[in-house]
Amino acid sequence: MNGICELEGSHREQEVEMKALKEDMLPSEHGEWLRVCPLSALPEQAGRSAWLGGRALALFRLGERVYALDAVDPLAGVAVLGRGLVGDCGGEPVVASPLYKQRYALADGRCLDDPALRVACWPVMLSDDEVWVLLG
User: Which of 55, 106, 116, 133 could pair covalently with 93 via S-S, beta carbons 3.0-4.6 A apart?
Assistant: First the structure.
């Protein structure tokens, strides 16, 4: 039961921090918060693709934490990262491209297998069980 309480507590902390961040953001300087979907629309431990603000995104839900990366695989040039395999590498959440298998860190988009590769990573906010992404 303690683990659930800790998870709920960390989710509330993330939500409070992101609400403060959203209130402090100026659309002209930092982008715009856009609603993506209800949290329940994202499966646990998997990715989904979304078209948002003229950009293909890959969204990943791990517990109550959601990550957003650009969906385009840098090597293949196609939006497939939302269909990648989600896991961890040394405790760090990653997605492996379904085409060439490079692993990208969900927290910042860097490639663990090739330092020359990277995908854009976008801030995510959970508010009232809705997923919001800050695109700039």
Answer: 106
